[in-house]
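Protein folds are increasingly written down as discrete tokens. With that in mind, we are printing a sequence and the tokens encoding its fold.
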Amino acid sequence: MRQKWYITLPLLLAATAVTGQERQSSSLYLQPTSKADVTVSFEIGAEGKRFTPTWGLDQAWVSEQNLKKGINHIGKENIGIGRSAFRFTKPLVNDSALATDQINYLRQRSNIFNSVSSTLPIVLTADQEAGADEYYVKNKVANNAHWAAMINSHVHWMQQNTKHPVVGISPFNEGDYWSVEEGATPAKQWQVAKLLKENYPRCADIAMVGGNTLNDDKAWEWFNSGKAYYDWGNTHQLAGSFDNFALFFERLTAAGKIGYADEMHNVGEAMIGLEYGMTVGIWWGFDSRARGEFCDISRNGRRLAYGEHRDKWTAASVYQHDDGRVKAFIGSSERQAATTTYQFVSPDRDVYFDGYGPVRSFSMEIPGGTGYQKGQTNAERVIDITWGDDVPPTAIDAGIYKLVNKATGNVAAVSGDDIVMQKYTGKKTQQWNVAPVDTRIGGDYSFYEFTAVYNSKTRPNVLNFQTTDGTNIMAYSQNDVPSSNEQWYLQYAGNGYYYVRSRETALYMASANSTSSNGVNVLQRKMPTTDTAIERLLWRLLPVDVDYETEAPAQPTGLKAVARTASVALSWTANTEEDLDGYMVLRAPEGSDDWNTIARRISGTSFIDNTVRAGTLYIYKVKAIDRAQNQSEPSVTATAGPTGTTAMVARWQMEGSLADETENMMDAAMYGTANYNADCKEGKAALNLRGSASQYVQLPYEVATTDELSFAAWVKVSNSTAWQRIFDFGRDTDHYLFLTPSNGSVMRFAIKNGDAEQTVDCSEKLPLQKWKHVAVSIGHGRTVIYVDGEVAGESTAITISPADVQPVLNYLGRSQFAADPFLTGYMDDVQIYNYALDQEGVRNAMNGMAVGISEVVGANGTNEANGTYGTYKTFSLGGQRVGGTPNKGVYIERNGKKVRKVVR
């Protein structure tokens, strides 16, 4: 099973019902997805929440590779503690001195920690690699005095022979699980801590660590009985409920104790722990990227958002580094997680999730199992969230590519047992199948695999898993599934180039030198300090039919920006390059340098930006891009903003299409198959939503971000299930405005902006199997629900505006809540206005009249042949011909036929 990204480039281009150059608008990037279990909404640049964690690595079980991997991924500067171990395989010599076996293991661990720092603080815990001598445990009963003396002797040796300060002691490790071996009980544990505190002066000022249970359901029981002697509380998340894991750290915080986890197995534990009070965490076995980047960003940044699913034992978060980088993380319980889908939402700007965008939301499924240790893969993931004037030219989807090196101009190719640089000649040994790894690869799945086209088992492989600079990257063909030294992540470096980094080592794939000769080896390297050397680390992933060259297209010219009611229309002069692949549209608020790419690889020379907000002027520029991913200099800028004039800003007639009939081109997108039925109220068809088929319509991101708002539509509800949605505009389950035909008792409008929900109720439900015109008018001081043009419910107590909510997940027929049903019924002639319609306006909308034309311009004309209406003017309205007289109203004409009356 490949990664479920829930979006690919073909899906982006096909998601809307109306595509093609003539309808290129921001709606191209709508991406309807299945309902997520949890929505995580974040705002880039928000104040967020800061933590002060101390992260560490483990040598309680000896593994120098584990430490080296951690150093490469976390960075030495972010490692503040280590875990070593005392051994109880031999009795103390003369009841005080360590045996040779004990000394050798303590020295080995300490020497390994020297690669981080010779003064790294250390916590000592029990070594589980060997059984206990009966000097310490006899007949399954621990000898407290001997146990305490043995720990004291280990501390003494550390103080005499190393510079590593011992800052904590865990008298027993997973005593709830290893009790047969160690003779541990909660009482035995705190009694040993008491002896160390009271009888051994060198241990008196060292933190005593309690708990450290395998099962967090027992953690508080083990800690609480000896809390008078414990400074830190500890648990290992290998069994037990999410509730007790979180509660344990909350209780420690309330008691003024340190929350500690000395065997973390998943980035989910780290995320959750920080939320509830953990401040010190040690990685038992270090995986790679997600854990390393989380350690860095949680110490040197702030948490923007957090979400969790307690029943499924998973969590997600978004952090922003102090240097500006933003990353999302998802993680799970190693042994208890169930499959969970998370949706990340950026309500205030378009972003790119690992290169997919520009979008405001992104969903990803994290895999789990079906019971304790049944199907879990310890899954975790990090996602880069980016934006700006240089974003990846396109997302890297599964496909066949050639890897072109910037320094040499050559490609990575298989040559015997090596990966070398060669001039591209089209050989299969020079081509690579590139694809995201299986989500169940085991542990972190933030990676891609590269398999040679000529042999699907041949992969780039870091020789012998070495973590050192300069190690050869070989061609290896023995693994059916890529091992950790055969997995890579793509870090965008700008101007179409990527760094290709190893899961095992975090080092960079590179050409050994900058010559263009065939046969230069490909190695893994640390990041160099010179630009020339850095170019050896830069790669373009190009389709095999694209020639690599570095000549950029010409600067686009003739950019124009025209204000519309809720959008800006852009147009420019076409470039003439034969290898032109499209245009990138960039935007920044006027007066700022906050540029972002809001459209990518546009094929034509026009674009409607409908992700703008009234009251803001925007600066635009356009870049051309060719097939080799060279980008031109940006065009001269143009400035415009939406007029914000009161108007109908979107209308979907549902005549076999989800195209918006206004000038703002707010085309909608369908999740599932769009079914149109002749059972309609207007025109020839209506949209048929079959709730059991999980169908819904997603509207453009900014269609409802106004101070006032009116929604009007013809609706025919087919079943009585409570909490269906006619519409639901929001960004998560704390920020929304919706209309349900029945909450079980009555039709209700509700709006919420993080605090208490505010509601307007009607006197009854919306009747079944009957066409009803439904409208909600949200104005300053009064919100009204209309049914068939009559007031059905109203309130003057609504204080929240749609703009307060910042809705971007705008649905017809779907709720923000995962458990709510989809709408079963029909919808026709859906209209949205950026102001509050009065009753007359609602009735006009109900009678097929488009209300609120704010600008009408044109020349005098004469009437069509099918009737006498006198002299009238023709106007422009959303690309349609509009005509009429001041006394008789305004008419929209299509193909010379009058089709609708429009009231000003």
